[in-house]
Please model this.
Amino acid sequence: MSPYDELMAFDHDTQALSQVAGRLGWDQETMMPRGAAPQRAEEMAAMESVLHARRTDPRVGEWLAAIDGDQLDAVAAANLREIKRSFERASKVPADLAATIARVTSSAQGTWADARAADDVAAFLPVLEEVVKLKRQEGAALAAGGDIYGAMLADYEPGTTAADLEAMFGALRPGLTELRAAILERPAPKGVNGTFDEAGQLKLSATLAQAFGYNTTHGRIDKAVHPFSSGSGLDVRITTRTNPEDPFNCFYSTIHEVGHACYEQNIDADHLLTPLGAGVSMGVHESQSRIYENQLGRSRAFTGWLYGQMRDAFGDFGIESEDAFFAAVNRVSNGYIRTEADEVQYNLHVLLRFDLERALMTGNLAVGDLEAAWNDRFRADFGYDVDKPSNGVLQDVHWSVGLFGYFPTYSLGNVYAGCLHEALRGAVPDLDAQLAGGNTSAATGWLRENLQRHGGLYTPREVITKASGMEPGPEPFLAYLKEKFSGIYGL
Amino acid sequence: MSPYDELMAFDHDTQALSQVAGRLGWDQETMMPRGAAPQRAEEMAAMESVLHARRTDPRVGEWLAAIDGDQLDAVAAANLREIKRSFERASKVPADLAATIARVTSSAQGTWADARAADDVAAFLPVLEEVVKLKRQEGAALAAGGDIYGAMLADYEPGTTAADLEAMFGALRPGLTELRAAILERPAPKGVNGTFDEAGQLKLSATLAQAFGYNTTHGRIDKAVHPFSSGSGLDVRITTRTNPEDPFNCFYSTIHEVGHACYEQNIDADHLLTPLGAGVSMGVHESQSRIYENQLGRSRAFTGWLYGQMRDAFGDFGIESEDAFFAAVNRVSNGYIRTEADEVQYNLHVLLRFDLERALMTGNLAVGDLEAAWNDRFRADFGYDVDKPSNGVLQDVHWSVGLFGYFPTYSLGNVYAGCLHEALRGAVPDLDAQLAGGNTSAATGWLRENLQRHGGLYTPREVITKASGMEPGPEPFLAYLKEKFSGIYGL
Model:
């Protein structure tokens, strides 16, 4: 075997083991008995040790050194790019630190969940302190003298720097706050009225998943506290949740996760269990979940179809027309929770977290001051006070599990989705006519063909640029928001 | 660190990874989307590679050689005994043979399932021939000149030889055939009548699991095609199944798996993720599942309580008294299928398999003659002909997946359960009064204290002997059967 073939054979098992670790994470959120948590932490740590040992195996370095990069085709070169990135990244982090982070974050997640349920920040802070300390150590090892936060960002969005984000978000924020202020001066549209039984929500949720092309031969939908998508290749599972008063929470969580899952399911089969067999970055991933959820799922055309589905499922819920339903779905109102935020305000929530976590990682903010900093920033951006920690600093799981550098990819995804949506509208002129019939296949087919199928073949910016035909920037997203919400609110 | 401490630290991760592999197996049977199977096979193979490499890691041999066994306490000595056994076992089988067996049995299982569905023995035999050939090679490598079948048995029941089993089963078989014949001359008791809705069965099934002490903080119950228990330590899950006409299938499958699961859950916490943190052998495991299911769950006293529960849940189902219900639960009737057999006939099914698989492994029976040998033996023991292969030689999955030496542990478990039951009755004189109220705590507490909590600390025969106060033999089991069924059938 050539060094390249040996490397790929070795990497195949690493990819398979990585899927196993992902499956354990899914199990922990959906099926695992509560009392299993301490043992699961040991299992995750052992898996992490195995994966770390493989990613840093000296043979990987030898194979990488022995391969003549000039002789490789595009796929092989991309495989090599990803394996090299993973090898160099893993080699920088000491094995015992990696295992400690896996163990600590596995149990920290349970502590966070309990603290959120009890609205008890103090119960979470010591654990967060430990996580932050460990992640800063990891960041310092990765950055090797450079920007700690930027090094973390590279785990989720390689090729984008903290400075890139600062510039992009700097252009986004004034547009968003201005639009938000204009909207909130207008009368609020009517919302839905009534209670929506869980079985009915889950049934329509499954219909929506199918409408957007989610393949349950290679996936399944379960309930979880926090909706997520998990896995790559032939086994991509999603979760959703229900709220009896707010069926949109369930439906749009589902469509969002279906966007993530379809990206994974639609990658070319050739890439299965290779470094290219998963979505290329979190930002590109989020572009898919958001374009499914918002530009398609919350469009006037698609909500017209959904209105009929909901009337069939739940009868009268106080909304008299498709236009009124479109406005209800897209209602902009005050709220504390990022995951429940409308399209206009969502990114303000994200930008808040980006600035705070960056300050935590660079040492400019102490964990003990985090809650106050959160509450101050929230008041500044939204104009009112956080009422309780579960509506503020305790609302997201991310930091408890060590995800620093992840939040900004949500907003980056929205920016990417804006670019893709502009190109998609150009490519499929009769898109609205199709969406009005509940048919997403032209849109999802275009995304599959131009973006999803490539998996990790191109870098994040490359694939967005190729698919959308433009250098990514915030303008198309802002223009889309302004047009849509000006229509709904008569601005 | 001492060599012992280094070895135990290394083994800790091996144990944790082994739990992960077990969890994948659970997922495959309960949750996995159908189309994920090819990817799961790769994931399982990668996990197996990792585990095999750890079990045969040269450092394990070095640590074992460096440890002074005379300096160890009982727990450390037992840990060493188990690690040594695993290391020597794994080191004896060439890696390519192990890989070939894994690959061949993986596809053989599918061939078997198709052949069983089509009642086509000829479609299965060539594959079985291959499996038998490979397993004999493996057995020869393990036996190193000794008894091939005995070497296989040692995988499931270390310390018990084929000759031990032959002696034990030789004493069992005439007693069973005699009792069976006497019973079948008597009129059959009335069975239950009606259909029993799934939700009601699952609810009562959960009540039964709780009544026998199953802890769902560290476990969960799901539906699966085949009931099983999976996992050790803090995460021990079981499955059950329902049949609308036969609620006992669900209830006694559940109690059986609860017996397995409680053995795992009740092991001393000190042994968590060590070689002693799981049930010590298949035979001892089966002794727990069978004593929960039969000696306790199918007792006159407990069925009296269950009768009330079933009347509350399902109303009238054609049984007019507790005595009639006891007889219905313990009805003995002709049947082909081992897993559906009553207490009297079950072991006749197992003994048949033991003799045939031993003959296959020692080369005294050719695969081509297997069906005829099965049918002859069945006629001899049961008095009527097998009507089709799916009711005969094709009924069990075991041989297709290479499980030779496993079947006899089912009957050994019944023999052990007979000994334990005799001791338990002596230790808890008012047991029936408690069972009549649905209270199993004295019985399960006695089993926990005297057997379950030790995990792998003692060898199988040691722990049975210590707990029951006798050398294990078939007499108590036979005496129990004779007394119970003489009462029911008026012999």
